[in-house]
Amino acid sequence: MTSTAAVSAGPGSGRTPADLLGRLRARGEADPVTHVERVPARAGTPAPWPEWAPEELRAAFARRGVVAPWRHQAEAASLAYDGQHVVVATGTASGKSLAYQLPALATLLADPRATVLYLAPTKALAADQLRAVAALELEGVRPACYDGDTPRAEREWIRRHSRFVLTNPDMLHHGILPGHAQWSGFLRRLTYVVIDECHTYRGVFGSHVAHVLRRLRRQCARFGRTPVFVLASATSGDPAAAAGRLTGLPVAAVTEDTSPRGGVTFALWEPPLLPRDAAAEAADLAPVRRSALRETADLLADTVAEGVRTLAFVRSRRGAEVVASNARRALDEAVPGLGDRVAAYRAGYLREERRELERALLYGDLLGLASTNALELGVDLIGLDAVLICGYPGTRASLWQQAGRAGRSGQEALAVLVARDDPLDTYLVHHPEAVFGRPVEATVLDPANPYVLGPQLACAAAEAPLTPADLTLFGDGAKEAVDALVEAGALRQRPTGWYWRHRERPEVDLRGSDGAPVCVVEAATGRLLGTVDGGSSHFLLHTGAVYLHQGVSYVVDSLDLTDGCALVHPEEPDWSTHARDVTSLSVVSVRSYVDAGPVGLFLGEVDVTSQVVSYQRRRIASGEVIDTRPLDLPARELRTVAVWFTLSPESLTAAGVDPADVPGALHAAEHAAIGLLPLMATCDRWDIGGLSTAVHPDTEAPTVFVYDGHPGGAGFAERAYGTAAAWLGATRDAIVECGCESGCPSCVQSPKCGNGNNPLSKADAVRVLDVVLANLPR
Ligand SMILES: [Zn+2]
Ligand SMILES: [Zn+2]
């Protein structure tokens, strides 16, 4: 434990973020900081109100303190007002709301019959937006939230009278579209559809939402309406393409952020490697680096000791508790009582408790807060002196959302990203351009996924018979999907179109549950704790598994797959459990390929069969393996999309990879490649799987497969194929730049490996990737 500095230096004694950072990094022997970026303060660029914006609306905004829009807001608003679909993709707190409120409300004021539909990914955000629109006090707009919590009694009033309805994609899918007859008055006058935080619609969920939006367009088209779509997105790679894929429409993008911001000194921080003997002694998977949690706790203690108001973001609830309690202990050792000024904050607290913590932090009664991502949406806690980010939060949008909590107006703030032992984190702290440069990470989705398209077409047909014109609307694969539904007896073809044959509506889950969800039930009380999707249940809920629910630990007594139910009891053992599986894969078809001499790159359909066969119990503190226990679970089949590359055995030998080491080389490259895919496409490593083999029966060569972990694919493998040279180049760099000797969780080990991370060869993985990169066209 490092000693903490004396409490609070006086004014003028080096309180700039750079000075503070200097003291933080001087604690240990090796300098953990790999890069410091000064993100300069920016003055905003205002623009005049667009001429079409009515005086009444300008006055309403002025009363709320908005005297003029920023240029990007005015630009996006005018595009939308002119009837162009537009996505505004700018930073956190850049005022994206005004960009859609302006054209939408101007239209509502000009046309007393017009209506607007607003979609948010969470109820909290919709409620937030409702407050903002209601506060403008515009006559006749009557904004209202319509979601699962809306009382029955109010629903009819909203349908009839509200002209600005705020809801979410689930309500649109389950409530509004199936009940379109009751909504016809609203839909036939719909002028704008606003899609807020549209980058959250990705993968299978995003693919479903894409079709829900097409169903909405179809209902509007029946009344001759073509509403304008206005989307708000976090900054990302190619937002126009992502928004176009989501809506199925041509979308213009506004990406230049002209709002003002405070300056931030942003440091990338890599925790040091542990002394070699300690690492060597430790068992399987034991950390080789100092953990990001301990590093963050020390940093939090040090900044709080200096009187700096600091927010630490930690990915898990348990992690936030650990960071807060370690920081408290360190502070109390330095100055008894000082630890009281640090607290943990997480989802699950009551609203009043959260407000109280936020207040204490804003007024300085509390100096340090360790939080999960609970603050990310809708809550207005900004203006901290320092923000610590423990582990890359998965997307650049989240990273900047978290860093954006730092900085009061006119004051510089400090942000620190502390790398976890993960290949993506390793890459990022050594490649600042990936954090601060132009974003490459794109929001991907795949509306052509047959497992999404079929069910969505069924929903559409149940709402109104499908016509040949609709097949164009629903895009690639729609005809095949309709034929399959006819074949299955779900649709009947008549001269006028395809009709839904059943009385009940199809039941379709937008999250694309992979098999029916499994209920987690506390055995003693019968209380339902939650559900786990079928695809993960074998890994997470097998007999003996330690299952975490909202930070509380349970152990599974039994998993009944027939009833879809796992019985658990509360218990906090000092071990964790890790399921192991055996996987086989066969190639169904090749969609596209690149022939690059000794190297081949492919995209295609595959069948993956996997079976969870055993689990390991490991001590939490040391990572030591206690034992391995067998399990008796059925195999699971998955038809999905994969990207794969092959190498000729000769090219590997020429690169110096001994034939005996080929399996370990490919396996290590596979793990790191999966770890780096989120750099190219917003996904996490649980969305994707992999398989590597020294010779595969379908390719007859050494092969590494990376596949989407969802039936029919979700767009991740496709994006990997499209960016293969950049993706595998980053994978190579992450491995090379990890300072460990023979592989660690920061480079080639994977926490979800079905083979217990064996065999793995770090050095040979680099040789494999060098061969691939030398041959693959850039
Ligand atoms: Zn390593
Ligand atoms: Zn593995």
What does it look like?
The protein is an alpha/beta fold. It is 35% helix and 23% strand. It contains 26 helices and 27 strands. Strands 1-9-14-13-10-12-11 form a seven-stranded mixed beta sheet, sandwiched between helices. Helix 9 (203-222) packs parallel to helix 18 (450-463) and helix 23 (662-676) crosses helix 26 (762-775). The longest helix has 20 residues, at 203-222. It is globular. The protein binds zinc ion (2 copies). Residues 667, 671, 750, 753, 755 line the site of one zinc ion.
Cofactors, ions, other ligands: zinc ion
**Outline type:** globular
Indicate the percent of residues in helices: 25-40%
Q: How far is the first residue's CA from the last residue's CA?
A: 47 Å
Derived from helix and strand composition plus strand pairing, the structural class reads alpha/beta
% residues in beta strands:
15-25%
The DSSP helix count reads: 26
Over the alpha carbons, how many angstroms does the gyration radius reach? 27 Å
Number of strands: 27
What is the average per-residue confidence, as pLDDT, rounded to a whole number? 89
Model regions low in confidence, pLDDT < 50 over at least 5 residues? 1-13, 279-286
Task: State the major sheet.
Answer: 7 strands, mixed
What topology, given as strand order, has the largest sheet? 1-9-14-13-10-12-11
